[in-house]
Amino acid sequence: MSERPSILHADLDAFYASVEQLLRPELRGRPIAVGGGVVLAASYEAKRFGVSSGMAGGRARELCPDLTFVKGRFSDYQRLGDEVMDILGAYTPAMQRISIDEAFLDVGGSRRLFGEPDAIARAIRARVRDEVGLPISIGAATTQHLAKIASQVAKPDGLVVVPPGGEREFLDPLPVGLVWGVGPATASRLAADGITTIGQLARSSRADLAPLVGGQVGSKLHALANNDDPRQVRSAGRGRSVGAQSALGRVIPTDQVLGEVLGHLADRVAARLRAARRAGRTVTVRVRFRGLRSVTRSLTLDEPVASTLTLREVAEQLARAALADHPDEREVTLLAISVSNLDDQPEVQLELPVARDDPHRQSSPTGAARLALDRSVDSVRERFGRTSVGYATPALSKRALVPDEFRELAEREVRPGQSAGRGEERDG
After folding, report:
1. Number of domains making up the chain
2. Active site includes 102?
3. CA atoms within 13 A on the CB side of 371
4. Is the CB of residue 77 less than 8 Å from the CB of residue 16?
């Protein structure tokens, strides 16, 4: 553990909503929400009325009658998020971006150039405000987990430094929901056993936590509550997998539902693989049922794949196998696809026509034709926008409530020690 609080967690405040207020001065100081049928992000003025991300639009209007809904400026979110990351990266090469609007930094090696960590944090906040125009909160501590909690306590638009030796004093009175990995359901189970603060969680035994949240999860939460977090800030490297998911509410998994949702997800994942000039051999599908019960099925192909049609076919095969193994489950609430075991994507060389034409092999005539079609689609989308062309089912589906542009901002290659897709469900 570092002797000084050299780990920073920088997190832009209510990012999507703050961007809207930055670009539209008439919205400043007013309660706004990005979205429509569902709240994708809420300003702090709206949050004071109880409006939160993921809330139905009708419910949000009931809580805040003066709420203004605005459409998302997706390209601006990406542009401004990248500008902020450029500022963070100017202070240390040890920067780990974990979503479009937040990152960890290890500034232990930057003292000679920029001063102590608290001075660096103040400089970052001033530059982000002056050069980009957005509020950012920063936590400084000796571990990643503690720095992240400190940044949440600092919100909105603040700085909190946790000094070495002051960890327990800082953590003990805070609500247990601030621990990384404690969501509403876990917090409710802990509260039912009288555990509502981080201090109470830290003083609980692993044996007592196991019946509440499971042995593995309980051990992890107990360690974090005691500031036991050995993770180091990792600079961006090549990702281990690419994935996407879609929350469905509660639907019956008919062939039409599977075709629409998995086709849509396959289109997103395969396009991101091709954009990164990568392909993967292992396809994994996750099916979540009612009660948060999930099952996964995987298949490793002979050749890496980056074709939308191939990925869709494999995903549908795996999803149907998962459903067949659970005939009593009548409804699904989430479907997800990920591709792992990634390789750089070389130019496809056709096989000699001595074997059968397997469309799942990109070196086969059909596989090569599929990939060529996908690249033509990519070229059209790059010029005219993502919605300009696509396969029929993914292009026509209206099932998703969250626009793809938001999903694409949140989704990225999963890196060691990094969770995926967080940005879609959080709103700082």
Report:
1. 3
2. yes
3. 25
4. yes
- Do 256 and 403 belong to one domain? yes
Domain span holding position 62: 15-74
What DSSP string runs through 100-144?
Answer: TTEEEEE-GGGHHHH-SHHHHHHHHHHHIIIII---EEEEEESSH
Catalytic choice (102, 316, 413, 424): 102
Reference 105, options 11, 193, 189; nearest CA is: 11
Rounded Cα–Cα distance for residues 408 and 244 (Å): 9
Q: How far is CA 15 from CA 53, 125, 235, 309, in A?
A: 12, 14, 23, 35
Are 178 and 157 in contact, with CB atoms under 8 Å apart? Answer: no
pTM above 0.70, yes or no: no
In 177-277, DSSP assigns E strands to 241-251
| Cα-based torsion angle of the residue sequence 305, 389, 377, 320 in order, rounded to the nearest 10 degrees | 10
Residue 401 contacts residue 277 (beta carbons within 8 Å)? no
428 residues of the chain, pLDDT tens digit each: 446 789 999 999 999 999 999 999 999 999 999 987 889 899 999 999 999 988 889 999 999 999 999 988 888 888 899 899 989 988 998 999 888 899 999 999 998 889 999 999 999 999 999 999 999 999 999 999 999 999 999 999 999 999 999 999 999 999 999 998 888 888 888 999 999 999 999 999 888 888 888 888 889 999 999 999 988 888 765 556 788 888 787 889 999 899 989 998 998 888 888 888 888 888 999 898 887 678 889 888 878 888 888 899 999 999 999 999 898 898 998 898 988 888 776 544 444 444 444 555 555 556 566 566 666 766 666 666 556 556 655 544 444 455 656 656 655 444 433 433 333 334 45
- Residue 293 included in any domain: yes
Angle (CA) 161 164 169, round 5°: 75
In a domain, 96, yes or no: no
277 and 176 part of one domain: no
3-state secondary structure of 288: strand
Q: How many CB atoms lie within 10 A of CB 176?
A: 20
Distances (CA, A) of 268 to 336, 345, 405: 11, 17, 10
**Residue written as tokens 């040890």?**
94
